[in-house]
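Q: Start with the shorter request: fold the first protein.
A: Done. Sequence, then structure:
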Amino acid sequence: MPIHPEWHTYTINVSIPQSYDAVEPLDLEEFLMSQLRSGDSALMQELGDFPDDDLEVELVEKECRTVRHSVPEEGVELDSHVRDCVQSYTQPWLMSLLLQVKSPSLAVLSDDSSRTLTSSDFDLRSGLTPDPRVEGLLHFSNHDDLDRFNQEARQVNRHPELFALYPPADEEDAVEIRPIPDCPKEHMGDRIIIRCQAIKFEIDVEPLFATLALYDLREKKKISENFYCDLNSDQFKGFLKPHTPQTDHSTLSRAAIFSITYPSPDIYLVIKIEKVLQQGEISDCAEPYMVMKETDSAKNKEKLEKLRNQSEMFCQRLGRYRMPFAWATVNIMNVISTATLDRDTTDSDSLNGVCKSSSLEKRGQLPRRNSERFGTMEDQCNMSAFKPATITISTFCKQEGDRLSDEDLFKFLADIKKFSSLQRRIKTIPGTIRLDVTPVHDNPVACLSTELIPVKPLAEKNVRPVKEVLEFPSSEVYVPHSTYRNLLYVYPQRLNFVNRLTSGGRNITIKIQFMSGEDPSCVMPVIFGKSNGPEFVQEVYTPVTYHNKSPDFYEEVKMVLPARLTERHHLLFTFYHISCQQKQNQTGASETLIGYSWLPILSTDRLQTGQYCLPIALDRLPVNYSLHSPERITPQVPPVKWMESHKGVFNLEIQAVSSVHTQDNHLERFFTLCHALEGGVTFPLRVREEKIPENKLEHELKLSIISLSSSRLEPLVLYLHLVLDKLFTLIMQPMVIAGQTANLAQIAFESVVSIVNSLHNSQELARDQQGRNGLLATYLYWVFRLNHRTRCHGPGGVGPPTEGRYSTMGRASATTVGTMLLQSRLRSSSNPDIPAPHSAEDTEVKNILSAKGQNNPGSRMSTYVDVSSHPQSSTGGTRPSNRKQFHEELALQIVVSTGVCRENAYKYAWFFFELLVKSMAQHVSQLEKQDVPRRSRFSDRFKDDVTTIVSVVTAEIGTILVKQQKELEQAEKVNISLAFFLYDLLSLMDRGFVFILVKNYCNQMSTKTVSMPTLISMRLEFLRILCSHEHYLNLSLYFSSPASAPVSPCPSISSQVSLARSLSSPVSLALSPPPSRSVVGGVLRVLLHCLTCNQSTTFLSHCFSTLRALVVKFGDLLFEEEAEQCADLCQKVLQHCSSPVDGNRSQACATLYLIMRYSFSSNFSRVKMQVTMSLASLVGKSSDFHEEYLRRSLRTILAYAEEDTEMQNTPLPSQVDELLRNLNSILSDTVKMREFQEDPEMLMDLMYRIAKGYQTSPDLRLTWLQNMAEKHKNRKCFTESAMCLVHAAALVAEYLSMLEDHKYLPVGSVTFQNISPNVLEESAVSDDILSPDEDGVCSGQYFTTSGLVGLLKQAAELFSNGGLYETVNEVYKIIMPVLEAHRDFRELVSTHEKLQRAFDNIIQKGHKRMFGTYFRVGFYGAKFGDLDEQEFVYKEPGITHLPEISHRLENFYSQCFGDALEMIKDSKDIDRSKLDANKAYIQITYVEPFFDDYEMKDRLTNFEKNFNLRRFMYTTPFTKAGRPRGELNEQYKRKTILTTMHTFPYIKTRINVIQKEEFDLTPIEVAIEDMQKKTRELAVATHREQPDAKMLQMLLQGSVGATVNQGPLEVAQVFLNEIPADPKLFRHHNKLRLCFKEFIMRCGEAVEKNKHLITLDQKEYQQELKKNYNRLRENLRPMLERKIPELYKPIKPRLGNR
C-alpha cells in the first residue's frame, strides 16, 4: 500500500544549496521532428502530440431566461452605442477551453409538465435494461482455470511499471485548481412570490383596485416598482366595460415575484386600494364601509342596492379616473423571519407582519456590501428557505387626502414600527387582505418578465400569469448588464394651484403621454397598462383628490423607451378638472382643460432623469414646444399664457432603469467619442454642452479614456464588458483621425490597468481564493473576444496606405526601455515623485532589459510590415500580416509600461496573463493547426516580449520577498498567476521555449536572498501547478533517462514502483490453498482498501476479479470467520454498483452476485442483512452515489440470477428477487424523502415504508422507528411519537424472547396489544433471520432489558404529553414486572408517582380533554403518481376545522402543481370521466369515529371513544333532484363508512382507507336521527355530575327557544301530522313519534335543571324558557298521542298441532 508522507512531521537535517542551475531543457519540437524522421514515428506521435481537442475555442449560446431575448423593436435603425449594447447582450459567449478544462453546463433543468408528485417504484424487470454481464463469470469448472484466466487478464496492456499512486489533492490546498467563474447573468436578489388571494370589505358594492410595492423604511426608499391587481367580480368588471377596450392576458395576474437584494428588518409591503372617482371626500366615500355590513342584509339591503346603482353610474361616466381610498401594510421581513411559527395573524399583529405558516418549507451571487448594515438581516432570516406563509391583514387605513406622498407614507410606517400598532389619529376601515408568501427557487410556470416577455418554462395552457416585479435596490448593485432593458418611470409628485384666482381646478388629474412629435397622432403606446385592461396604453390619468387645489400624487407611470430617441421625443402632461356631478342637461365630457406642461426626453443628447419643477402653459401649447424645456421656451406671438407668471408649479421625478443609457458623464463621453471614430458623424461634434472639431477629437478621446477611472463604481461595473471591449479595440486597431495615425494604444492600456486596479481595490467586490477579481475573471472567461472587424478609418474617412500598417506606438530602443523601467523602479510605490534607494533588484531589472537591448539593437517599429517584401520564411519566424495581432500589441504594452501603470500591471499580472492566453488561443484557432508547427505560431519578437515579461515578473516576486515581507501573500498570488501562464502556454506555444522560461524562473528564484522555507514553498507551488498539466507525464519523459524515475509532483514514485512489484506475493499466497484465516483476512483488507482509493478502471477490474476468486475459493471461511470484513465488503462493492463508469459498475455487479451465490447454502441471511444495511448507509450518508446507476445495477444482478442455469432449481433466484425488490423499494423511498421534507404526511409514509423494508434488519428498523418518533415529536404529534417507541419496544421484546426466557419479560409483541393491536406487526419477522447472539445483529444498546425499559418509559412520557393517560397505565404494566424482578424500588416509587399523576389527570380533566379530529382526504389525477385515487383518513390536532386542513394541503400542493390543483368542495363520489386529465384534485371531508351498537357497550369513556379507531363515517346530504339540500320531506342522507388499514393512533398520522360501505337514509330516517341526536345531547347535559349552565342553556335555546322552536315543530308537522299511506313507513312514523316523546320529556328535565342553575338576574329568561317549552309541548301533543292502530294490535298466539 502506498505510504503518504506527512512532510510537516519530520525535521530532516540535509544541506540544501541556496542556489542551483536547473537542467538545460530539451528543444522538444526539434527532438520530436528528428524522432519522427528516424522511424519510431508512431510512439513519438502518441507521446508528443496533444489531442486535437486540447485547445477549443467555441461559441456557446447564451442561456435566455425568457422565450426570446429582450431586444429593441424591429425596423428601427439603431445608433452605434445601442447596437453595440444589444450585440453585447445577445451574442454567444466565446470560451477558450484549454486542456479539457470544460465549461460548466449552461443547461438548466427544464420544467417537466408531466412531472408527478411521486414516481411509482421502478419495476426492475420492465423499467430497466441490465448492463452487459462479465464474460464467463459462471463457467469455470475448477479454481485453477479461474486463476489462470485472471492472471492472463492482468497481463493484457500492462505497463512495466506502476505509475502515480498519488492520493487526490485536498481542494483547499490545491493551488493547481483554477476556479471557473460563474456565467454572467441578470442580477436577481432573493426572490419571493406574493399571491393575492382575497381583498374583502364589509360591503361589496363597487370595483376596487390594488397596488402592491415594497418600501425600505430604513433607507426611506421605494425598492420595487408597482404591481397592479384586482379581484373584482364579473359584475363589477362589466361596470367598467365602456372604458376597457380590451383585456390582455398579461394583465390578469394576481401573483408577483418581488426581488430583495439587501434584506433589512424594515422592509414593508404596502397595499394601496383605489376606487373609481365619485363625488365626495375620501371620508364620505369610506363611511358606508365603516358602518355597514353585507351580513346585515335585511337591515341594509336597500342601502346596499342604492350604493351599487350609484357605483355603476359613476363607473360608466368616470370609469377612467381613480381616487385614493385605503391602504394597508405588513412588515414583510417579519413575515419571513417568523414563517416557521405555526400561528395565525391576529388583528393586533397584522401591521407587524405576523403570519400563519403552512406545511411547506420549502449566491457566486452579487458581491455583498461589507457594512454591518447588510449583514444583520441575513443572519436573522434565510430568504430562500422560509416556510410559505399566509398573511391576513384585517385592518385598512383610510387614505388622507392631504397625506398621500411617499414622505407621508414613511412617517406612517415609522409610527407603526415605533408603536407596534396604528395610532388613534389614523382612521381605519374593517376589511381583510389575504396574501400568500413563498420563496422562489425556480421560475414558476406562466411567468412574465418585467418587460412582459414570457419566462421559461411556459405554461401548457392559458393559466393566470405571474409577473416579475422590477427591484429598485436600496443600494448599489455591482453586476454588469447582461440583458437589454430600457424602462422609464415617471413620478408626478406635487401640484400647487393654491394661488390661482379662478374657481376651477379642484378635482385635478394629469393625463400623461409619451410623444414622438407634437401632433396628437404622435402619441406612442409605450405605457404599461394596469390590471384587467390593455397590456400597453397611450395615456394614463393620475388619481383625483376631491376638492384639492394642491394635491400630492403617488402614481408611478412605467414606460418602455424607444431604442432610438430624437429631440422630438417628450413627455406631455395635460391637466384637467374633473366634474364629479353631472349637471342637468349636461351631455359633454366631464373633463375641463386647465393647462399643459412637457419635458423633452433628451437634453443635449442625454436622457433626462432626476427631479423637475415645471411651469404650466394655459390654453394652448407653444409652437415647436418639444424642442425646448418649458422653463426656456422662446417668446411666441401671440404670447403664451403661463400659470403663476411662468413659475414652476408641477413637481415630478423621472427615473430610468436602462442598460443602454449609462447616466454617467464620463462613460457617455467615452462611448460617444469612440463611436465618432466609426464615421457617419458631422463636425463639430456635440458632446453635452461642448462642440468638438475634428482636429481636437484625438485629444478629447484621450481625455475621456483617462477619465474613465473617475466614473462612479456602479455604472463602471454595469458597463464593464462594453468599456473593456472598446479599450481593447483601441489597443488593437490603428485609428486614423483626420489623415493622421492616432497614438491611442498606450493610453488605452493604461486605462485598462487603472480600471483593473480600481476593481481590485474596491471593498465592495468579491475575489476568489487566488485573489482574482470575480468580475474581471468572468469577463475574460466568458466575454472577451478579438474584434475582427475592419479597422476604423476615423471620421475623415481616409484610410492608411494599403501596403503596410502602423502601430499605435513605436517601440523605444532597448536602452530607452531599460531606462524607463529602471526609472519606474526608482520611484516610491506610494508616491511616484519620491525617489527610492537603489537595490540589487533594481540592477537585476536593468540587466534583464539591457540584455534584451543587446539582442535587438536599434528601434523596434515592429508593427509596420511590408507584405510584398517579407515572404514567409521556412523556419516560421515572424508571420507577416496586414493586421496587428492583439497578443503582440498587449505584450508590447506590458513590456514598455512605466511608473504606477507598470506596478499595477505586474501586481495584477493574472489578468493580463489570462488576457494574453485567451487572445493567443483565438489566434491559434484561426490558424490551420495541422499545417502550422508550434514554433511558427508566434513571432520571435512576441517570444522575446514574453521572455521579458516572465523575467520581470519573477524579479518582481523576488523584490517583494526581499523588501516587503508584509506583502508575502501578494508575492504568492503573482507566483501562482505566473505558473498558470506558463501552464497555459504549454498548450499554445513551442514547448521547448516554455521549458526555457521554466528554467529561467528556477535559476532566478534560486539567487534570491530570502528564507529557505519561503523560497522552497514558492518554487514548489510553481512546479506543482505546472505538474498538474494534463500532458505533464508525456512532457516529463523527455527529461528522464531509463535509469531515473521521472520528476513528479507525487512523493516517492520510486518507492511506490517497488511496492507495486512486491504486491504479487500476498495475492499469490492467498490464491494458493490452503491459506490460514489470517492470510485471507489480510488479503481481503488490502483489496478493500484498494476499493476505497481512487483507482483506474483497469485496476478495479483486476481487483474485483481477485475478490471474486477469494469468494469462490474461500467463501465459507470469509462468511463464517470474517463477519466484520464481509459487511465492509458488501458496502464497498455496493458503492461501486452506483458508479457512473460502466466498466466499474459491471465488475461490482458480478462480484455482488457471486457473494450472494456462494453464501446461499449457509450464510445468505447474513449477506441479505449486510447488503440491506450497506444500502441504508450508502443512501443516507454518501454524497456521491447515483440512484439511476444503482438501480441499473440491481437489474443487472437480477439478470445474473435469471441466467444462472445451475441455480434455477434452487430457491436462490426467488430469494435474490425478493432481496432486490426490497432494496429497490428502500432506494426509491429514501431518495423521495429528500423531495418531501416539507410534506409531513408523505415524509412519514416514506419513512414508514423504509422502516418496513428493514423488517429483516432489526437494528435498522429500530433506528428508523426512532427517527419517525423524533419527527413526530418535533411536530408535537406526541401520541404518534409514543406509538413509534412502543413498536420499537415490541421489536426489542421479540428479539429478547429469543435470547432470554424470563417470566418478567414480555412474550414478544403480543404483550403490547392492549396498548394497540397495530403492534402485532412487529412479530412479522422473516424465518431465516439467524438468532441474534450468533448473527451479530440486535447488538445495539436497545436490545437489552434496560433498553426495553428505556424505550417504554420514553413512550409513557410522550403518551402523557399527548393526553392519553389511560395508555400510560398500560405501558407501565409491562415495565413494572421488570422493575419488581430487579428489586428496583427507587424506580418503582417513581413509576407509581407517574401513574398517580396520570390517574389524577383523568379525574380532573374529564370530558374537557380534546382528542384528534379526523378527515377523509382523496387524491385524484395522474399528477399525483402513487397517490392517484388513494383515500386516506388524516388525524389532525383537536379542534381542527375543515378550512384549516384544506388550506394547509392546498398551500403545499399548489407549490407542486400551481394552477393545475383544484380543491373539490363537496363530499360527493368522484366521477373520473368528468375530471381534467391535466389537473390534480383533492377532496377533503370531515369524518367522525363510527361504532356498531355492540361496540358502544365497551366504549364508555370519552377516551375509549377516541382510541383504537378504525372505522369512520361521514354523511352526504342529497335530494332526488340532484341538489344537496331541499325541503324536509325531500332531504335524503347518504352515510359512508370507511375502514382503515390500521387503527388510530398509529405510527403515522394518515392511514389508507381499505374499505368503503354506503347506505342511504330516507327523509323520515334523517329526521329520526336528528331528533335522537338532540335528545342525547340534552340528556347528557342535564345529568352531568357537574352541570355546565352555559352548555345547557345553549341546547335549550336550540330546542325550545322562541326563535328556533320552528325547527323541531316543523319536523313534527312534516312527518307526524298525518299517518303515512305506505304501511312500510308505519314503523318509521312510530319511531319518530317516540323520539319526540322522549325529546319533549328531556326538554322538561332540562328546563327544571336550569331553574336550579340560574342566577338572580336570569329569572325572566327562565320564565321565557318555561313558556316556550309549554307552547312546544302543547303544539306537539296531538301528533304525539296519535298512534297507528296496526302497530298495536294484540299478537294472536299461534295454534300448533299438539
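Q: Next, the second protein, separately.
A: Sequence, then structure:
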Amino acid sequence: MALTPDLTLAERALDELEQIEARALVWGLVDNALGDDEVYEALNRVLNDKRNSELRYDVACNIATARDLRDQLVALRMIFEIPHSHTGSGDHSPRWRTRMAEGVRLIARLRQMFPQHAGPTQWTSAPTLVADYRFLRRARRYPKRDQRRDAVMSVIDTAVTDPLLRSAVAHWLDQMPPNAGMSRFQVDAAARILDGLHHRVRAGTLVSAGTGSGKTLAFYLPALAWIARQRVESPKSSVRVLALYPRNELLKDQLAEVYEQCGKFDDWISSRGGAPLRVGVLYGETPGTRHSALKQSGWRSNGRESICPFFTCPKPGCGGEMVVRAEDKELARDRLVCKSCGHCVESDRLAFTREAMAKEPPDVLFTSVEMLNRHLSNPQLRHLFGIGPKALEAPSLVLMDEVHLYSGTYGAQVAYLMRRWWSASGRRSSFVGLSATISEGRRFFASLTGLDDSVVQEIKPLENDIIDEGAEYLLALRGDPVSQAALLSTTIQTLMLSARLLDPRNRFDKTSNPFFGWRAFAFTDQLDAANRLFRNLLDAEGRHFSGHPNTSRYPEGGLARLRSSLEQNRRYDGGQDWRVPENIGHKLETRLEIARTTALDSGVSAASEVVVATAALEVGFDDPAVGVVVQHKAPRDIASFLQRKGRAGRTRHMRPWTMIVLTDYGRDRLAYQAYDTLFDPELPARQLPLSNRYVQRMQSVYALLDELGDMTHTDPLGIYVWRDMKGPPDEALLKHWEPHNLRELREVLKSTQPAKISAQHNALRIKAKQLAPKGWHRGENLETSGWYWLKTRLAHKRLHDLLKHVLIRQDAGERLAASLQKRLAIPREDLNVLLWNHPRPLLLGAVPTAMRRLQMNWLGKDSAHPDYSAGHPLPDYIPANLFDDLSLPEMRLALPGEAADDHYLPVQQALGEFAPGKVSRRYDHALWLGVSAQTLKSYLDMNQEIVEQDADIGDWYQMQGERPFHRMEGRKVVEYQAFRPRTARLQAAPARSAGLPEISDTTNAQLKWSSHLEGPRDGTEFRPPEHIGVSRLFSSLVAHTHAGQSAALIRRYAIASRADMRMRIGNTSHRLTVDWRFTQEGKPSGVGFEIDADALLIVLNLPAELHKSIDWSDEARVRAARAARYNWEAQHCPSFVETVANPFLRGWIAQIFQIAAILVATTEKLSLTVALNELANGARMEMLQGVLSTVFQMPETEPGDESPDRLRQALTEALGLESVRLAVRDAARVLVMPIDAEWETWLARTMRATLGAACLEAIQQACPQVDPEGLIVDIDPGIRLDGTAPQRAEIWISETSPGGNGMIEQVVELLASRPDSFYRHVEAALEASDLESTNTQLKQLVEWLGGNDRKTEIVDAVMRVRNATSPTTAQAEFARLRADLVRRGQAVFHGYAVALSLRMLRPGSPEEIDRLIAEIHDHWIRLEHLHGIEIDVRVMCAVYSSDTRLDAAFVSSGLVLPMSDRESWRFGVLMGLLWPQGHALRAVNLPLSNRFVPNIATERLLLGQWLTQRQAPIDPSQPGWLENAREQLIARSEAVFAVVADQAHELVPTIIRTLTVEPIHFDYLNVFATLSSVRRRDDTIELHFSIPESA
C-alpha cells in the first residue's frame, strides 16, 4: 500500500533520527537524547534530499518546513519530548527520543515490580531483570512494487492468448488502489503459471522471497483468474486448485485472504452468467455435517450455536465470530452467521462441511498434507483429490505453501505422498511452491514434487528489484542473574512493555498508520513454558486464568499501572516511568487481552493484544497487526526462529521488533555471545532423504493402504481403510443386548463368506437391526449398534480376504508390486527390499500383522493383553502423522480428578517432562510426581541444603517388570530392578495451606539415567584404512542393524531424580534440593525402556597412557586442555561439589575465581599459582568483590536503596567462606599442575567424547540425508545383560527410534563402498571450523585497523562503511570492503561477514576503539603464553573494564556516558566488541549432546597429532607443477595445491581443468582425478585432488 507524501516524509525522517540514536544504543548508551538543533538539522536534511523533492511538491503534501515535519512525527507518536535528567543539567531546551530509542531504554531498565514497589522511591528495591542487551537497527528490504497495471498486462498478454483469461486478470488489476503496483517477480510468476494453465502444460514453479514480499499474491492472482474463466466456460463442480499446507494455523489464515480475493471476481463472473468462486476447507476440525458442527471437536458450542474455529466474518471492519446455528437446520444450504453483524456466508461460497464438499466439490480446496495422506483411500472424499470414478478431473494446479519447511524425513514423507497422489490422480497437475529463499530451490522443489528438473523454474526477486524501506529492530536481552528473578519474569515484563510500545488497536491502520502494529506474539519451544508464560502474563495483567479481570486481587488494573507517570524525574531516569506508552495512547490501568495458541489451543482470538504460542503459530500466519515477536530462551532450530521472526511486520512500512530473552547459562549464554548469528542466521540447503529406507518402508505401507482403497472404493460396506483398519469396533453398546441375540449376531458374522458380502449386504443390515434392542443409551441409538458392529467386522473380513489373496496368489502379488512401484516411483530392486527384507518388510511383516489383527479383532494371547492399536492402521509400521516418527512405547498420564481425560506421550518424553519433583504446566494445572506438603515440611525441618531420600517408584507409576540391569558403584556391581512405566499418576502440586509448604511451579528436576548398549548378535565389521591418520585411533566399526539380523539392544532407565525445589510457607521463601533414589520394595530400581535399534559400534584404539602419549610440546594444546579441564572440575571436583551443592553457584564461583586470579597475576606481576593461593587464603578479597561487581554489571545503589541482588549476596557469602575458596582452589589446581596420571580419566573421557562428536558430524556430512537429531552418541555403553563391563573403549551411535530408521543403514553403505570418505570427514570435523576462521580473520583485521600492521586502505574502507549515510551507501561500501579483504586473502563467507558487520562496522565507531581492541588482543595473546592457559573473553573484558580510553573515544563522538557504574558499562561494551574464542568456541562447534547424560565438552586439539599429516602442497605458480602433481597422484593417490587467495581467480580454473580433463596413467589404466575438497588455510586456498577409491 503506497503511503501519502506526508507519511512518506515522516517515515524517512524517522529513519534519519533513528540512525543517529542507534549509534549510541549499539554501545549500551540508552540515556542519550536528541537536542532541538539535532532534530531540526536531521529533518532539514530529509527535506532537502533530492529524492524527496517530488514528494514536497505533491499537491497532497502538507509539510513545508522542518517544524511541520517534526509536528507530523509527534502526531504519529514517532518521537516524544522527554523530561530532563534529575542530575541537574543547566540546559533546559527540549530533548527528544524516538519510540525506538525510548523502547530500548525502558527494556534495558526493566524491573520486577509488584504492588509493594509502588510509589516514588520503592521502585529501587524491585529486582532488575536485564543485565545487558545487544541491539541492531537495520533497514527492511522489499521487492519494488513498480509494475503498474499496463506494465503487468503487457507481460500477461505476451504469455496468454485467451482473451477471456486476459479479461479476468485485467478485472482484478482494475481493483488495485490508485498508484499501487506489483513486484516484477510477482508478474513473472503469474505469467508463467497462467501460461502453463492455458496450454495445459505440466510444470513446476517455485516462488521464493522473504517475509511480507507478496508470494501469496503471485499464486492466487493467476490461479483465481483462471478458475473464474473456467467457471464461465465449464461450470461443472470439481476441485481445480488444491492448496496444501503443512500447518493448520497457516491454512486457516490463508483461507480468509483467498475468500476475500475470490469475491473480486464476482461481478466479472456473474456478468457472463457464471456462479461465484467457491472455497472449501478440509482438516481435522471440518465437521461432517451442519448438524455435527454443533458438537464437533474444536468448535465451541452451547447447544444452540457453535463457533467456527477457522473462519471469521469477512465483512470489512467486523472480524466477528461466525457460528452454525441449530435453528438453521432446515435450510437448503449450510451457512455461517456472524454473531456481531449478522452477515451470512453460505455453502455456495464457502464449503465448511465434509458433506457439502462431497456433494459439490469446491473450486479451491484448502487442506493439509495429513488430510491428503489419510483420505487418498476414503471412498467418500477421494474424488476431491481427483481420484476414483466420481472425480470429474484432477486438480489442474497444486499449491504447496511454505515449501522450505519440507525438509529432512518429514519432507521425504511429503515427497512420497505427492508421488502417490500424482500417480493415483493420473499425473495431470502442475505445481506451484511458495517458499522463503533457500539455496538450490529449483532442485529441491523438483525433488519434492517428483517433477523433472527441466520443467521446474524458480522465480525470485533480483537484487536490482530490491529497495530499502523503513526499519526493523532486533534486541537480544540477557536476563539478570544477580536478582535471581526467573527468566520468565523478564519475558513477561518485556511483553507487558513491548505491547504498549505498539499503537493501540484503534490507531493502527494499514493505510494511514501502518508503522507499529498493535499485537505481540511470544514464542517458546516447550508447551510447559508456553502455559507458564500464558498463566503468569494473565496474572500480571490483572486477569483470572479464564481471561476475566481479577478485580479482587487487582482492583485498579494490572502491574503496568505501577509505572504511571509521575513528576519525579528520578523514576523516569530509572526506566520505571512509562509515560511514553501513555503518550502513545495506552492507559496503563487497562488490562491487555492475552490469548494462547498451542497444539492444545488452536486459533488466534481477534481481540488479543498478546498471543503466547509454540510452533503451532510460527508458520505463515499473516496477521498485519503483529508488530512484536518475543522469543523466550534460545531457539532450538534457527529455521523455526526465522519463521517466528517473520510473523511480525507483515504490513509494508511496519517497523517490527524481534526480541530474544536469554539466560546467562548453557545454550543461552553461547547464543548471546554469538548474537550476530541470531540477528542474521544462514539457512543451509534443504535435504530430502528419498533413499532413506526408514521413510520408504513407511511409505510402502501407506501405498498399500492406497491400493486397498482402490480395491474397495465401490464396496457397499463403504470401506474406508484408514478407519476400518485402526482397531476393533466399539462394543460398549453391545453390552445392552440380549445374550442370545448377540450370539446370533456373531454367528451371522461367522457364517458370511467374504465373496458374498456384497450380494448379501442389504439382508445383513436388516438382520442386524432386527436383532438389536430398541431405544437409546446416553444419546446413542441401540437399534443401529448391531449394524455398526457387523459392518465393521465384515469390512475386516473383506480386507483380510484381499490381503490373503495378495499373499497366496503370485499374480496378485505381482500386480501389487507393480502398483506400489508406480505409486512410489522407485526402482524395482528398491521395492523388493521393502517387500521382503528386514526390518518391517511389507509382505513378511506388515501384511501378516494386518491379517492377524483383522481376523482376531485385535485380540492378543488373552483378554488382558490385546493386540497393539493406536487409533490408526498398523501403528508399528506407520505413524499417525507424517511428521511423527515410529515412537518409543507410550506412557499414559493419569491426571487427577475422576473426569480428567487421559493423555499419552512417548515414554522417554513423558519421563523427562514429569521427572519426580518437577512441576509442569503442560496441561495448564501445576502437576507433578512428588510427595505431600507434610513430607516437604519434614524435609525442611532437617535443615540440610541437600536431602537424600529413597523413593518407592510404585507410588508414582503403574509398571511392568523388565529384565534387571547392573551398574558399577564404587568397585561393586549392583543389580537394579527394571520397570517400564505404563501409567504415571500425576497429582496437583501442593498449594497454599496454613503452616505447610506451597510448592512453586518453577520447581525443576533432572533424572539420572543408566544406559546400557550391546549387540546380542555379531554385527558387520569394518576395518579402518591404514593410510588415514585418525584411523589409528579406531580398531573397528561394527554395524548392528535389523537388515543384518543383528540389531543392538538399547536399555535406558532412570534411577534417581534431583529436584531443585522452591517453596513458600506464609511469607517466607525456601529453597531445597532433594535427591530421590528410586527403589521398589526396598531394592534399587529404574524406570525406562528397552528397544531394539540400529546402531554403529565404534571400537577405539586409544593409547594406554594418554597423559604420556599426547604431544604436550604444542603450547596451544596444553592451554586448551587446562581450560577444558577447569570447566569440568567446576562441576565435578569432589571437594567443590561437597562444599557448594548448587551447580549454577559453582559455575559462577569458578569463573569469578579465575578472572580474579588473572587480574591479580597481571596487576601484581605474580605467577598464576601464587595468585590462586592468595585468593584462596583470603588475601585478595577486594579483587573477588570487584570482579563480582564488574561481571554482573550491578548498578550502584544510592543510600537507602534495598539492592535485590540475591545471587550476588549468595556469591559474596560463599566467597567469604574459606572452605569455599579452598574448594575452588582445588578445582583450579588443573590450571597450573603438571599434566600427569591424575589427568588420565578426564583425558580418556574427553577424547571419547570428541571422537564421538566427530563421527556423528562425519556421518551427517558424508550422508547428508541422515538426520542427526535421530541419532544419539554414547561414550559409556554400561554393563551388559550378563553383568560384565566392556574391556575396551567403545562409542555407540544409535538410532533414537526402534525398528531400524534407515540412518545406520546409510552409514553401512558408506563404509562398504567408500570407507575413506568416513574417516576423512572425521578428520575434517576435527579441523578448524568456520567459527574459528571467523575468529582468526577478525583478529587479523583488528591488526590491520589498529595494530602494528596497520593497512591504510583497509582503514579507509572500514571508515567509509561506518560513516555511510544510508543503507544503500553502506551496502555499496561494504561490497568494496569485501573485495579489498578478499584481495588480501580473507574469505568473506556469511558467518564472517555478519560478525564483521555487527562487531567492527557499527555506524559511527571511533577509530580509537580499533586501537584499543588491537591492544587487547595483543595483550590477550601475551597473557595466555605467560600463564599457559586459555583465557576466556570475560577475563579480558574484566581486565580492561577500568580502562578510561573507552570513555574518551565515545565522549569525543559526542555521546553521553552512564553517570554511574562505568566499569560495568565498559565490560558490556567490550563483550559486544570482542568475541568468544578458544575452548568455548571449539566445543560449541563440535557438540556432544546426549539427553541421558550430563553434557561433556569436546576438545579437538587433543587429537591433532593423530590427524593425517599435511603434505607439502604444490605451488601452481612454479614451473613443473603439473608433472609434480601427476607423480604425487600416482604415488599417493592424492595431491594438494596451495593457491594464494588473491591469485585464485587466475590459477584455480586452470588447475581444475587440467587435472580433471587429462587422465592419469596407472599402468594399463587411464584414471581421472577428482577434486575432493577445497579448504581455506590462512591466506591460501587448498585444493585436494584424489584418485577415486574404486580405481
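Q: Describe the second briefly.
A: Residues 1-101 form a domain with the Arc Repressor Mutant, subunit A fold (CATH 1.10.10). The chain has 54 helices and 47 strands.
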